[in-house]
Amino acid sequence: MANVPSLYKQFEDYFKIGAAINKRTMHHSKDTILKHFNSITAENEMKFENLHPKEDEYTFSISDEMVSFAEQNDIGVRGHTLVWHNQTSDWLFKKDGKDIDSSTLDQRMKSHIDTVLDRYKGKMYAWDVVNEVVLDEKEPFLRPSKWLDILGEEFIEKAFIYAHEADPNAQLFYNDYNESAPIKSEKIYQLVKGLKEKEIPVHGIGMQAHWNIVDPQLDDIKRAIEKYASLDVRIHVTEMDVSMYDFEDRRTDLTEPDSKMVELQAQRYEQFFKIFKEYHKHIDSVTLWGVADNYTWLDNFPVRNRKNWPMLFDENHEPKEAFWRIVHL
Ligand code: GLA
Fold first, then answer.
1. Measured between alpha carbons, how far is 69 from 128 in angstroms, rounded to an integer?
2. pLDDT (0 to 100) of residue 294
3. Is residue 45 among the annotated active site residues?
4. Closest Cα to atom 8, ligand 1: which residue?
5. What is the mean pLDDT of the chain?
6. Considering only CA atoms, which of 204, 67, 63, 201 is closest in space to residue 123?
7. Is 155 close to ligand 1, i.e. is its CB under 6 Å away?
8. 177 in ligand 1 pocket by Cβ < 6 Å?
9. pLDDT over 80 at 20, yes or no
10. From CA 254, how far away is CA 143, in angstroms rounded?
11. pLDDT tens-digit profile of 238-265?
């Protein structure tokens, strides 16, 4: 890898370059992480169900390990995620087999946020406080969830208020996918605008950027960035990958991408990073949702057991065509 430039150093004047890691890749992909990334996000290890499996039990060992790995190597950490409809422990919404009332959930949410943020105070440069509460369709505005059922729509602002009280220096984010689609981006904009008008401490919008070789359109991405930036919040690209398959493409027979896919992916990465550079005054970090093609959640989504190659490094951690295009921008 000696002649390969460091990805994060290449973008040092613009934004951090992050990777989502897990307990295996933290060790197996250590060299690639240290050379190319200066921010990490825990892929699953800081989600509610992983950190807080029972009301009186927290399991911090893996996330602690990630945070010290980052500290030792001078890497920033994005905390992910506090309030979400997925990967949240079932006990949270129940007591003695019945749904709990709003004040119990309020107090449980506060206690989770306090405990987690307090543990990592000063060690995270940002937290995804609320994840994916806006629906893709025009109506209804908010996604149905236990949070919404029990606490009403105030659960969103309460989460930010509690997070800010627990760690007043952390940058607090609203994070979502399909963040560039016209209807969804307008809704995300309205949600955050409403919070800002009420002086709720929200400091940024996370654009997940689970993109592919066809979608989204570049103009939609630019429009979304401009819209979000107009709210005077910071922007993080939080979960980027560029799937080799169009979302409708459900083929399962490819053992490697064809040359057309490889070229399209390289072009797309180049165009995306051009946009990030163009808007770098608003963007503080760009995180890839993985390290290299040897491990990606897209191998099981939206089709199970189908290989995908969405990252900038191949299965042997060698830089791909997409990598060279973006470092030569
Ligand atoms: C969402 C979540 C992430 C992750 C991805 C799929 O985008 O925010 O934590 O679960 O889905 O891996």
1. 20
2. 97
3. no
4. 131
5. 97
6. 67
7. no
8. yes
9. yes
10. 35
11. 999 999 999 999 999 999 999 999 999 9
In the residue annotation, 132 being an active-site residue is answered as yes
Other Cβ atoms less than 10 A from the Cβ of 107: the count is 11
Q: What is the DSSP string of 190-245?
A: HHHHHHHHTT----EEEE--EEESS-S-HHHHHHHHHHHHTTT-EEEEEEEEEESS
Q: How far is the C-alpha of 62 from the C-alpha of 67, rounded, in Å?
A: 9
How much is the pLDDT for 281? 98
What is the band of 128 on the pLDDT scale with cuts at 50, 70, 90?
very high
CB distance 179 to 214 below 8 Å: no
How much distance in Å is there from the Cα of 96 to the middle of ligand 1?
30
Indicate whether residue 45 lines ligand 1 (CB < 6 A): no
Q: Are strands 234-243 and 126-131 parallel, antiparallel or unpaired?
A: unpaired
Q: The whole model's pTM is what?
A: 0.97
Could you tell me the pLDDT band of residue 151, with boundaries at 50, 70 and 90? very high
Cβ(208) – ligand 1 distance below 6 Å: yes
Distance 170 CA to ligand 1 centre (A): 21
Contact between 127 and 164 under an 8 Å Cβ cutoff? The reply is no
- Rounded distance from Cα 289 to ligand 1 centre (Å): 8
| CA 95 vs CA 104, 111, 130, 239, 309: distances in Å | 9, 16, 24, 34, 44
103, 153 Cβ separation under 8 angstroms: no
Buried b / exposed e over 172-201, threshold 16 CB at 10 Å, is bbbbbbbbbbeebbebbbebbbebeeeebb
Cβ 284 vs Cβ 39: under 8 Å: no
Q: How many CB atoms lie within 10 A of CB 90?
A: 9
